[in-house]
Amino acid sequence: MSVYWRPVRRVFPLLVAILCLVATIFPVAAQEEVPVDATAWSEETEITAELVADSQDGTAAEILAPIPIQENTQMDVEYESPATAEEVVDSMLAEEAVESVAQIEATEATGAIEPAETAEPFLVQIEPEPTPESEPAAVPTPMAAQAEISIEAEASVPSQAAAPVAGVGLAAAKAAAKAEAEANSYFAWDRANVLVIILLLLSFLAYFTFQAQRGRDMFIRRISGLSALEDAVGRATEMGRGVLYVPGIMDMDDIQTIAGVTILGHVAKKTAEYDTPLYAPMTRSFVMSVAQEIVKQSYLEKGHADAYRADRINYITDDQFGYVAGVSGLMMREKPAACFYLGTFYAESLILAETGNMVGAIQIAGTAEPSQIPFFVAACDYTLIGEELFAASAYLSRAPKEVGSLKGQDVSKIIIITIIVIGTLLMTIAQTEFGSQTAFKEMSEGFMKFLK
Amino acid sequence: MLFLKRTLPLIITFCTGLIMITAFFTGPALPTIRALREIFPRWIQIIMSFTMLLGAMSLLRLNLQKISRKVEGYGYSIVLVSGFVCMAFLGFATGGWPMFESEVKVGEHYYHFSEDNMHSKYVKIVEVTTNDEGDKIIMASDPEGEVRRANYSRLRSTSMAWLVSAQMVMFEGVFRAAQATMFSLLAFFVASASFRAFRVKSKEAGLLMGAAFIVMLGNVPLGGMFTKLITSIPVIGKYVGPYIDIPIWKEWILTYPSSAAQSAILIGAMLGIISASMKIIIGVERSHLGGEG
Predict the structure, then answer these.
(1) A347 to B47: CB separation less than 8 angstroms, yes or no
(2) In this complex, is the C-beta atom of B6 within 8 Å of any C-beta atom belonging to chain A?
(3) Is the Cβ–Cβ distance between A249 and A345 less than 8 Å?
(4) A167 near A89, Cβ under 8 Å?
(5) A308: how many CB neighbours lie within 10 A of its CB?
(6) Taking a C-beta distance cutoff of 8 angstroms, is the pair A50, A43 a contact?
């Protein structure tokens, strides 16, 4: 008794919901991990004298000079450990900020700085300087519009110099610790997202393959180029002419070449069945030996081993244009009625396709090279675009294992599309006036960080 | 036999795939495994060099058979075999230099070739010394009598100079020229393919035609001139002019619809590549080993 279970339709919305949840949770979680001092020292909020000068009418010195700051005597604290030092610096920064706010409020009250119409609290940056002569300090302050303030502290106050210097030291220590942790890592964490995608894809492949093997009927959309394959071979048979097959110009270490020679096996079965000559000139000798083996096996399976001609699957040259010349010559001499170009192609794609057109052949092309697809679309009768080339084997064989894997690939694609849509929406909303002031901005940043 | 032909390759593929995946995700703490990412692909070159011999043998056998049977067009095979033998001989004969190291003697004449082997000077060796590091320092005088230090690896005897020159004539004068000729055919084929593609037979072809027309126009000065012309028309230019900017339209087409479509193709292709690779590693796809997948 077999239990027929159809979880996909139920699971799919759940998966999408989980994805949305992850997209929401991740930035929040990431936000919590960001230490306060790191936020304060972030380059994105860094305020420099030049920036201030650019955004104000007066000079940097005029803007920066009037704000005094109290001497902070607590900076003389000796650090016992990096963790303690970090805490001390954090607390000092906070205290310093509170004091400075009070100071500036007092200054505003006395009219030293004109208060803004719409007072917005924001974080102002302390700029670390290597020399003790010009030590900047910063405070969170209500200020006018987009004005940003960097406060130059008194040069003669050594205790004020200690805060940024200590902060820089801590940041360097943190970076060193992080680098050390990365150097001792057994796993390349920067590639974790790739692993997630591969595992996801694998799980779908396994699931759908399993389902297909259990007899579940799976729909594959019609691919015109592959449906026309048999017709093309049939046409060549009727016309008494041959079939030309080119599996690209790259070697067997290219996945498109592997896909190309896989389809060659199916084409060879048809040519064996119809007893049609099959010409397959190769640009790599390794591909030639593999192709010979595949074609031979196909002819054997169809019971026409005697019709197999090894000399028709021959090596021409490794040179790109030398190969094109050889294949074009073969086309002009043999005038094949059907031409297949399935694999990796570069500049030779159009020369081959146009020569095939000149001899009046029906042409089916396929490649995953985006730059060559337009040429094939323009010059060939049918074109397999990108992934269709890799789906060809499953489409032609209809083997449950292959069809299942194709289905798994499709589901992965839907998930990727969902991620793209979520990312696009988040980024678009974050760019708007409304979104830039809400949690959407952080969410979009976190989402992009997660994807990277 | 079946084990050697099917099972063993599948085992090797699985193990290699697993190692490569592991190496890809391994952190810096395991440098030996990480190094496999660079080492494994290099091994392919060893296999390739062996298969090169296989290809050469196949090519020669096929064409010699055609010549011996005098099949139609066997004249092309004669040209091919002649070229093959000629270039192989010249390559082997000239590629072994410096093979006459001990024969560079003072007072003898040699041809001193330029770096690209395209030019040479007839020089006379005036002095041969050896420095502290054991390198030979050769001073040679050119026909004008100027004495200069000669690069040892570029000195050729008269017979060798003839061979190098012949090789360069064949390579630069025949091979490169033929290569450039084939490449230049593209220009004509682009024109003929575009002509066919732009015949508006359906809505899709119409869209293609429209987009291609705008991109073509935007790439030539005529596009900008047309925009200026529209803007300069008194009434139309005021209301329509700001919206008709062919170069901007072109940029928009290339930046948004075109790149979006290309990204979509790439994403699909990459998924297909991952899926196909996984199928091959696991052994689901085995058509490339011959027989049923």
Answers:
(1) no
(2) no
(3) yes
(4) yes
(5) 20
(6) no
Interface touch B25/A316, C-beta < 8 Å: no
Calculate ∠ Cα B52-B57-B63, nearest 5°: 125
Q: Tell me if chain B has a CB within 8 Å of the CB of A46.
A: no
Q: Is B147 helix (H, G, I), strand (E, B) or coil?
A: strand
Of the candidates A219, A220, A217, A214, which has an alpha carbon nearest to the alpha carbon of residue A4?
Answer: A214
Spell out the per-residue pLDDT of chain A, length 452, in tens: 444 444 455 555 556 555 555 554 444 444 444 444 443 344 444 444 444 444 444 444 444 444 444 444 344 434 344 444 445 445 555 555 555 555 555 555 444 444 444 444 333 444 444 444 444 444 444 444 344 434 344 444 445 555 556 666 778 888 888 788 777 888 888 888 888 888 888 888 888 888 888 888 888 888 999 999 999 999 999 999 999 999 999 998 899 999 999 999 999 999 999 999 999 999 999 999 999 999 999 999 999 999 999 989 999 999 999 999 999 999 999 999 999 999 999 999 999 999 999 999 999 999 999 999 999 998 999 999 988 999 988 888 888 878 888 888 888 888 888 988 998 899 888 888 888 888 888 888 888 887 77
Q: How far apart are CA B126 and CA A411, in angstroms?
A: 78
**Could you tell me whether strands B147-150 and B136-141 are parallel, antiparallel, or unpaired per DSSP bridges?**
antiparallel
C-beta atoms of B273 and A315 within 8 A = no
Choose from B54, B81, B184, B279 for mutation: most chain A CBs within 10 A: B279
Residue with tokens 């302050």: A141
| Cβ pair A289:B288 closer than 8 A | no
Q: How far apart are CA A216 and CA A338, in angstroms?
A: 35
* Dihedral pair phi/psi, residue A122, rounded to 5°: -150, 165
Cβ pair A314:B58 closer than 8 A: yes
Query: Is B269 in the A-facing interface, judged by CB distances under 8 Å?
Result: yes
Chain A residues in contact with B273 by the CB 8 A cut-off are 255, 368, 390
Among B residues 132-171, those touching chain A with beta carbons less than 8 Å apart: none
